[in-house]
Amino acid sequence: MEKALRADTWFDRLAELVKTLRSDRGCPWDRAQTPEKIKDYLLEEAYEVLDALERGSPKEVCSELGDLLFHIAFLAALYEERGKFCLDDVVRGIVEKMIRRHPHVFGEARVDSVADVRAQWRAVKAAEASQQGQDPALHLDAVPASLPALMRAYRVKERAATEGLAHYDAKGTVFEIEERLAEFSRALTCGQDEICEKALGDLLLAVVELGRQGGVHSETALRRSTGRFIHTCRCVVQGLREQGQTVETASDRELDRAWKACKGEKR
């Protein structure tokens, strides 16, 4: 068994491994990669980390974090080859940023609650934006457009709330959802795709906001609900199969009974 090395040595070895893969004596596939080509793999690895976290297996989380870290190191190496920055710059940058944004830990600032921490975080970010010549008054444009739609909607609504732009409380948002649902129902009858799409988008945005106000992240909630739905579908198919039936051959009553059984409801 190889002798255990210090964490920073393993980190250095990761950087050297990437350089070897990119070298003339390395791998043709790795040499052919560019930042544009690698970004999809990076996103895929991030979602595999999320899946591992959902399954709750420390071994899987460790493995998937390794895959994600490799892609981060690989992307940094591509920019180092172009003379832009290296992996050390990435690590130094995030360390300095976290120190700067935690003055209550690494400085003299004092906070008494999580709310204080968030307010301080926003103040530090606003100061950073001002120093970089950005408008610190509104940060909605800073939410990446490439985020999944629900996640982006949540972040935009979250930032809007910090800017005082959340004009409804939970009760008002529920009323808005009811209005948006009615609009979508009317839009369905007109048969115009563009109107239906707009109405559905407005409805979803209102639902995301209600979830945010209740401390529920819509992306996480929908991902888990989808997982439960898949599990229920498998249960229904298996239950019918045990009865010598399929979804195609079962009657509506038999299907309804199978759904209720799989959802733990009384027959």
CATH level-4 homologous superfamily of the domain at 7-92? MazG-like
CATH topology of the domain at 7-92: Helix Hairpins
**Beta strand count:** 0
Instruction: Bin the helical content.
Output: over 70%
What gross morphology would you assign? extended
Structural class by SSE content: mainly alpha
Report, as a whole number of angstroms, the end-to-end distance.
Answer: 57 Å
Strand content: under 5%
Low-confidence region ranges: 1-7
What is the typical, i.e. mean, pLDDT?
Answer: 88
Any idea what the radius of gyration is?
25 Å
Give the C-level CATH assignment of the domain at 7-92. Mainly Alpha
Order of helices and strands: HHHHHHHHHHHH
Query: How many H/I helical runs?
Result: 12
The CATH architecture designation of the domain at 7-92 is Orthogonal Bundle
**Sheet bearing the most strands, described?**
none
Description:
This protein has helices at 7-22, 28-31, 35-55, 58-81, 87-100, 103-106, 114-131, 149-162, 170-190, 193-213, 218-242, 252-262. With 267 residues, it is mainly α. It is extended, with a radius of gyration of 25 Å. Among the domains are: 7-92, Helix Hairpins (Orthogonal Bundle); 101-137, no CATH class; 220-262, no CATH class. It has twelve helices and no strands.
